[in-house]
Amino acid sequence: MQVELLEIVSNKEIAHNIYEMVLKGEMVSSMNRSGQFLHLRMNDPNLLLRRPISIASIDEDTCTLLYRIVGKGTKDMSRYQVGDFVDTLGPLGNGFHFDFLSEEDQVCVIGGGIGVAPLYELGKELVANGNHVTFILGFANQDDIYYYEQFQELGKVILCTDDGSAGLQGHVGVALDQVDPTAVFACGPTPLLRLVQSSYSHLEHVYLSLEERMACGIGACYGCDTKKKDKRTCKDGPVFQRKEVVL
Ligand SMILES: Cc1cc2nc3c(=O)[nH]c(=O)nc-3n(C[C@H](O)[C@H](O)[C@H](O)COP(=O)(O)OP(=O)(O)OC[C@H]3O[C@@H](n4cnc5c(N)ncnc54)[C@H](O)[C@@H]3O)c2cc1C
Ligand code: FES
């Protein structure tokens, strides 16, 4: 873990209120696992707490973040220009592990909304590991969809929208019976994680990435403990085995 000013290579809106920010810096070389996150200090000095954003892609000398504008911090981020620097603490947290998988294993990766973001790097890593990946991706509607083509390059994508404006109508639950995987990885809102947790109770390898609100990001403040209280999302997670967390 280190603090570094990462340089913005690009920052653009790619779907309704969803932005893609590409960053460059030494820290990229220490990013080696999907599911980890960066803790960004906002340029607006009134915003004291850092904001956690997942690493969506790790490339040769850049990393990519995908974020949704929900409040002042993410609005501030959307205004950053190419060549600006972002004070970044990272990489943080424990990401996705899949060393138990054998080549050719079928894997299901399930994401909802902005929770789809960290699953892109995971997908790249699973494909490099020789696994067959089916992505089940849920969005509110057609305007919220991002990275659809990028995921299609990695495997089969089953798209779901709440209003049926693209793909299957309904949340990701409508597609779960289409896959019989060895392992499942998921990130998204709590109801999605709860559904995945209960639907795959017969499987050993089910991993959920939580997005609790955070303060310090390094395990010091206990501001992000899970309902079980003995686990902090930032330090022990954000990825947990399904049996480890109460949602
Ligand atoms: C490990 C981790 C990884 C994350 N990865 C991403 C990512 O890749 N892309 C992305 O867009 N967001 C991600 N988030 C969520 C992101 O951190 C928040 O959206 C961001 O901090 C909001 O800051 P803000 O100042 O814009 O909003 P605020 O003004 O702080 O809040 C605006 C609204 O959003 C709600 N909110 C804020 N943070 C969260 C949260 N963590 N969960 C649920 N509701 C929240 C608030 O309750 C409030 O209603 C991640 C969070 C965690 C913990
Ligand atoms: S944010 Fe401080 S312990 Fe997790």
From TrEMBL:
Domain FAD-binding FR-type, chain residue ranges per copy: 1-98
GO molecular function: 2 iron, 2 sulfur cluster binding; electron transfer activity; flavin adenine dinucleotide binding; metal ion binding; oxidoreductase activity
GO terms classed as biological process: 'de novo' UMP biosynthetic process
Cofactor(s), by name: FAD; [2Fe-2S] cluster
Domain of life: Bacteria
List of residues binding FAD: R51, P52, I53, S54, L66, Y67, R68, G73, T74
Note accompanying the cofactor annotation: Binds 1 FAD per subunit.
Keyword rRNA-binding included in the entry's annotation: no
Residues the record lists as binding [2Fe-2S] cluster: C216, C221, C224, C234
Keyword Heme carried by entry: no
Keyword terms of this UniProt record: 2Fe-2S, Electron transport, FAD, Flavoprotein, Iron, Iron-sulfur, Metal-binding, Pyrimidine biosynthesis, Transport
Pathway note: Pyrimidine metabolism; UMP biosynthesis via de novo pathway; orotate from (S)-dihydroorotate (NAD(+) route): step 1/1
Entry function: Responsible for channeling the electrons from the oxidation of dihydroorotate from the FMN redox center in the PyrD type B subunit to the ultimate electron acceptor NAD(+).
Assembly and interaction partners: Heterotetramer of 2 PyrK and 2 PyrD type B subunits.
HAMAP family for this protein: DHODB_Fe_S_bind
Record family assignment: Belongs to the PyrK family.
Name of the featured protein: Dihydroorotate dehydrogenase B (NAD(+)), electron transfer subunit
Organism: Jeotgalibaca ciconiae
